[in-house]
Amino acid sequence: MRIFICFAFLFFVFVNANCLSAQNATISGSITAAGKGEEAASLSLLKIKDSSLVKLEISDKQGSFEFDNIKAGNYFLQADVVGYKKFFTPTFEVSNKNIKLDEIKLTEDEKQLANVNVTTVKPLIENKIDKTIVNVDASTTNTGLSALEVLEKSPGVTVDNDGNIKLRGKQGVIIMIDGKPAYLSGQDLTNYLRNLPSNQLDQIELMTQPSAKYDASGNSGIINFKTKKNKNNGFNGSITTSAIIAKYFKNTNSLNFNWRQGKVNVFGNFGYSAWKGFSDMYIDRSFRANRGEPFNKYYEQHTYGRYSDYPFNFKAGADYFVSDKTTLTFTVDGLADNQKFLSTSRSNIYDSLHNFTQYNDATSNNYNPWTNFGFDLNLQKKLNKGAELDIDGDYIFYYTKGNQYSNNYLYNPDGTLYDDPNAPNPYLLNGNLPAHIDIYSFKADYSLPLKNNTTFEAGIKSSYVKTDNDAQYTLFDTINSKWNYDSTRSNHFIYKENINAAYVNLQKQFKKLSVQLGLRAEQTIATGDQVIKSDDFHKNYLQVFPTAFFNYKLNDNNTVGASYGRRIERPSYQDLNPFQFQLDRYTYQQGNPELQPQFSHNIELSYNYKGELNVSANYTTIKDIINDVLITKEEKGYYYTYQTKENIASNRNIGLSVNYGKQLTKWWNINVFVNVYNNKYDGVIDSEHINVSITAASMNLSNQFSFNKGWKAELTGFYNTKDYVSSNILSEPIGMFSLGGSKSILKNKATVKVNVRDPFYLMHFNGTTDLNGFVADIHSKWDNRRLIFTFVYRFGKTNGQQQQRRKTGAEEEQNRVNTGGGN
Q1: In angstroms, rounded to a whole number, what is the distance separating the alpha carbons of residues 232 and 499?
Q2: What integer pLDDT is reported at residue 634 of this predicted model?
Q3: Which among 175, 248, 250 is positioned nearest to 206, based on CA atoms?
C-alpha cells in the first residue's frame, strides 16, 4: 500500500509541476510514410528570415521528433527522407508556449525511387542513453557466425562455456527475437542461438534497465535480436551464403525478401544451416566426506562429443495498411531441427591412496528433433488527440520427441568386466523424452500525449502456458536380458502457469529534465503435477514492480541520468521439471520443482557525451538467486555428481562501465568497452554456507577500417578476467580476437567477406569448484577456430528507408521454455 501511495503522490507532483517549465519552448510532432511512423527521418528547423539552420533532429522508431530549448521567433521545418518528396511545413511562430505540429505525411518520389540506389553505413556500436545497439552487418567479422558468437563479442556481454549469458557481470538476461521472447531456456536457448546465423540479424539491443512497459522478468535486463525486414516498394531482398572451414565443415544460407505494393507489404526470412562440431571436456573430481577431511576417492573423466544440427527457420508475414491510421499485421515463424549429439566418455576411478581401481566407459547418444510454430496478429490504431492503441495476440507451440541412450561398462584395471554386486553392469539406460508446450498471450498498449510535454501510457497482458513432459526411462536387466521400466528416473510432469499484468507510465519533459515513472503489477498463478509420483504444488502471488528514470540534458553534448527498477526472475519451465539427463552413470543433470522466483533491485547512474562516450555505474541486489550448483551424493561406495538449479544465495553486484566509440579518422572507426564489477554471494550450497566475492572485468575492442574501391578490414577481440560462472564455479580468464576483410563487387550489389575467427585457438574454458563434499577441475574446448567465406547478393530496389520494428504480445514466456535434452 505504501508503494501505491508514494507513486500516486509522485504522479500528482509529476503532472502538475508546471512551475519548472522553461521559458524557451519545445516543438514536437510526428512523421509518417504509408501510414506508419518513419524512423530516422532528417528534420531541419529553419528560420523564416534567411532559411538558416537552427537545429537538426532525427525521428525515433515511432516517427516522433522533438526540438527543445527553442527561442522565440518565426520558423518552418524541412523533412528529408530518401525515396520521398521533400516536405516543408507551414511557417509558425514560437513564443514561450510549447508547440505540437500537425502530422507530417510523406509522399513517394517515383522518379527518385526509379534511379537511386542508396547504401546506408551504420556504426558498429551505437550508445544511447537507455540502451546499446550493435549493428550486426557493420562488422565484417560477424559474417558466418551464429547469433550466440556475435553476442559474445558485444559490449558488456559475457557467454560462458555452457552458453549462460551475463550482461555487465549480472545473470538473469531475457532474450527476445524482434521484441518477442525466444520461448526457450537453458541448453535449448543456447542451441537455438548457436543455430541462428548472423546473416539473418540486423541489430542487437542491450537494455539493462527496461521500463514498466516491459515484462518484469530478467534481473540484468533484456537482449533483443532484431532480424532483417524492410518495407521498400516493389520486390527486393538479399541472399547470403557462408562456407565455414574448421575441424568440421559448416554452412549457413539465408534469403530475405519483401514485396510492397499499395496497401500491402509481404515479407519473409528463410534460413537453412548445416552445423557440425565437437566438444572436448576433462573433469577431475576429488571426493571427501566433509571439508577438512582427506580425500577418499578420485574420478578423472574425459568426454569427447560430436554434434550435428540442420536447422531450418523462417519468418513470414504481411502488413495491410487499412488506412493512414490503422495497420493490421499477421506473422508466422518457426524452426525445425534435428539435433544429434554423440559422446564417448572414460572415467578412471582411484582410491584414497590414488591407486587405479576401476574405469567406466560410457557412450551417450542423444537425438532431439523438435519443431515450433508461432502465430501473431497485431493491430496498430492511431486515435484522436495523438493517442495510439497497439493490440497483440499470440499462439506458440513446441513439440519434441527426444530419445536418449546411455551405455555404461565398468571395468577392472586389467580390462575385464567388473562384477558389481550393488548395481547392474553393464549399465544400459534408454530414455524416451517427448515434450509438448502451448503458449497463449494477449496484450494491449495505449499511449496518450497530454498537455505540457506529458505522455501517459498504460497496458494489460495475460499469458497462459502449459508444458507436458513425459520422461520414460527403461533400464536393461543383465540377468534376465530384458528392458525394465525405471521408476526412479521416469517422471510425467505437467506445469500450468497464468500471468496477468497491468502497468502505467507517465513521462514528462521539463526544460532540460525528462522524467518517467512507472508501476507494473503481475499476478502469477502456477500449478505443477508429477503424475507418476503423485506430487504437486500450487502458487498464487501478486507482486508490484516500480520503475523510475531521470535524464538531465546539461547541454547539447552532455546528458546525465539515473534510474531504478525492481525485477523478477521466474524459474524456467524445464528447471522445475525433476527429470534427469544422463552424461554417464555418475554424472547427470536434474530439475528442481522446489525453485522459487528471485527478485532484484537495480539502480543505475549514467553519463553520455555526444553519443560517443557512455559511462554507467550500477548497484544491484538479488534475493534467492537461482544458480547452477553441483551436488555430490555417495551410494554403496560410488560418488554421483549432478547439476541442478537452486535458490542458493543473495547476490550483490556493483559495477562501473565505460563505452567509447568514435570515427577517429575518415578510414578508422573504434569502439572500446570496459566493465569492472564486484560480485558477492552469500548463501548455502549442499548444506554448506558460502560467502564469496570477486572483482572482475570484461573488455571489448573493435577496430573498423575503410579503404578505397570498396575495401574494408576489421580487428575485434574481447577478454574476460577470472570470475564466478555461478556462485560455486570459478572460471579462469578467457578471450580471443578475430580478423576480417570485405570487398564490394558487382556495382555494389554484392559483397564478399573473409573472416578468421580465433586464429591461435585462444578460446577455451578452465574452471574450478571447491565445495564441502568435493573439489573439481574442469577444462573444455570446442570447434572455435574457423576460416569463413561469405557472399552476399542484394536484388531489387533499395530506397534507403528504415526498417519497421514492433513488439508482439508474448514478452517473457518463451525465455523459460526448455524442450528437454541438450548437448
Answers
A1: 38
A2: 83
A3: 175
CB 63 within 8 A of CB 39: yes
Rounded to whole angstroms, the maximal C-alpha distance in the chain is 100
- What percentage of the chain's residues is helix, strand, coil (to nearest 5)? 5, 65, 30
Owner of C-alpha cell 553505413? 121
Q: Tell me what percent of the residues of the chain surpass a pLDDT of 70.
A: 89
Distances (CA, A) of 255 to 49, 197, 239, 312: 51, 11, 5, 12
Which pLDDT score, from 0 to 100, does residue 633 have?
84
Q: From 435, 438, 427, select the one nearest 471 (Cα to Cα).
A: 435
Indicate whether 239 pLDDT > 80: yes
**Residues across the chain:** 823
What is d(CA 804, CA 226) in angstroms, rounded to the nearest whole number?
10
pLDDT tens by residue, 326-359: 999 999 988 898 889 999 999 999 999 999 999 9
Q: Which three cell numbers stand for residue 446?
A: 495505449
Residue 282, CA distances (Å) to 301, 582, 729 in order: 6, 17, 15
Query: Bridge partners of 267?
Result: 258, 317
How confident is the model at residue 195, as a pLDDT?
66
Q: Which three cell numbers stand for residue 440?
A: 497463449
Average pLDDT, the chain: 84
Smallest CA-to-CA distance from 777 within 119, 164, 300 is with 300
pLDDT digits (tens, 9 = 90+) for 426-441: 999 999 989 999 999 9
C-alpha cell at 757: 575467427
Q: Which three cell numbers stand for residue 369?
A: 528433433
Residue 770: which residues within 8 A CB-CB, separation 6 or more?
728
Distance CA 239, CA 133 (A): 24
Q: Can you give the pLDDT at residue 1?
A: 42
Residue 130's pLDDT is 66
Asked whether the beta carbons of 765 and 161 are under 8 A apart, the reply is yes
Here the cell at position 673 is 568497452
CB atoms within 10 A of CB 233: 20
In this prediction the pTM is 0.77
| Amino acid (1-letter code) at residue 116 | V
| Closest of 404, 368, 361, 437 to residue 183, by C-alpha | 437
Mean pLDDT along residues 97-113:
76
Give the whole-angstrom CA distance, residue 240 versus residue 749: 12
Provide the pLDDT for residue 187: 62
Close Cβ partners of 694 (under 8 Å, ≥ 6 residues apart):
678, 679, 722, 723, 724, 730
- Residue whose entry in the numeric block shows the C-alpha cell 528570415: 49
Q: If pLDDT is split at 50, 70 and 90, which confidence band does 800 have?
A: very low
Nearest CA to 432 out of 16, 24, 165, 820 is that of 820
Round to whole Å and give the CA distance between 811 and 182. 9
The separation between the first and the last C-alpha atoms of the chain, rounded to the nearest angstrom, is 47
Strands 297-309 and 326-351: antiparallel
- The conformation of residue 217, written as its DSSP 8-state character, comes to B
